[in-house]
Structure formats: structure tokens, C-alpha cells
Amino acid sequence: MHAWPYPSWIAHRGSGTLAPENTLAAFRLGASHGYRMFECDVKLSRDGIPFLLHDDTLERTTKTAPTAAGLPTIAGHRSWHELAELDAGGWHSPAYAGEPLPSLERIGGFCIANGYFLNIEIKPTIGTERHTGEVVARHAARLWRNEAVPPLLTSFEIPALEGALATQPALPRGLLIHALDRQTWAQWLGHATRLQCQAIVCMHELWNAESVTQAKAAGFRLLSYTVNEADEVQRLIDLGTDGVITDRVDQFHPQS
Q1: In the predicted model, is pLDDT for residue 100 greater than 80?
Q2: Burial class of residue 30 (count of CB atoms within 10 Å of its CB; 0-12, 13-18, 19+)
Q3: Are 171 and 195 in contact (CB under 8 A)?
Q4: What class is the 9-56+102-246 domain?
């Protein structure tokens, strides 16, 4: 990708907290506020269908009966038929009761039909990191095969990005960074270079003059999550970063 085709404003999980996250209703609400690019989390059902959900478990964002043993309900251990029947909206507010978990196929169709852009965060169930990256990349390549701008695939999980690279190297990728921990910026940039990423997507507080200079010198685009304060947006703009992922689709009015 010689030119960066994506807007600089990205709606987090569809429309932040204003609608049930990672649902088609959230995407529609974000679009009503003028957003043209959306971030979402994608994992696999037990039978290999990519669908939208952030957590490993279903309890927080679906109406799910607890297991007999009282154990967490792992989303990736359920078939798509089971998942598709769940209420993924009622937890948020009565107006969204009955909103289903969407498949990547459904969200992709919505974005393509309306000319919207998508950032797919690959969110694997533990133990399926590389496989999830492979499957999501294959589905994304198929869905966007006739489109000029493919989705941006991102992940915190290096094996997931390795799987995406091996399966569909032409799809753009971004490495997500939450904290430096024991790794230096040089080490993270080395991972991103090896994975042939186009972007670094990190916790907004990690961007400063030094980190921006290093990442730009290495040739990456710089994105930030999750940016909800106006003064922080301005700081990131002044630093020369390329885009922000925000919950506050009602506060920030995207211009590009």
C-alpha cells in the first residue's frame, strides 16, 4: 500500500458505548454521526465462522444462561448456530433487545454496500491465535475481493498476524501495543517490520515525540486507541499521528 487510504477518525466497536458494541446497530449509529471507518473485534466460533465479540466469554455482552458448573461461557466453544441465536443488545438497553451477534460476513456486507472502511482486530480464543489469523484473513480477502480498499487487520497477538501474513500477505496489517513492559520500542518495531505491518496501533499515552519519530522513521502509520478527550486528540494531531479510535462518536465530528 503506497498510499494510506483510511480516514483518520475510527469509531470504536461501531459507536463506542452509545449502542451495544460490535453489533450492526452500533455500526449504523456510528455512521449516523458521520463516521466512515469502524473498528471491531473478530473471533471464531467452534465451527470456524468469524463473528464479532470482544471478550473471550459471553456473559458481559449477551443474555447467556450460566453453565451448570457455574463456569464462564467461552464464546469460541459454541457453534455459530448457537451464537447467532443470542441477544447481544438487551444488556445495553431495552431499545436494543434482540440485536444479534453479527458475523464478519454481515458486517462486511454492510461496510462494502455503503463504502465504509473497516479495522478488524483479530481477537482469538486462547490457543487458536494463528488459526484465527489465517481464517479471518481468508474471509476478509474473499469478502473484499472486488474492493479497492481492503480492511486493516490488527492484533495484539503476534501469531495471529503471522497467520494472516502467511495466508493473505496482500492484506494490510497493524500491530497493536498495550504497554512496553519488557520490550523496547525498537523491539516492537522489529516485530512489526518482520510481520510486514503498515501500521502501529497503540495505547494513546505511549505516543510521544520520541516514539513517533522512531515509528515514522521505520515507515509505519501511527494510530491510537481509545481516545475520548479533546485535549488528547489535539496532542496526537500535533505529534503527527495518522488516526484515532474513539468511543465519543457523538463528540468528535470526523472530517476525513
Answers
A1: yes
A2: buried
A3: no
A4: alpha beta
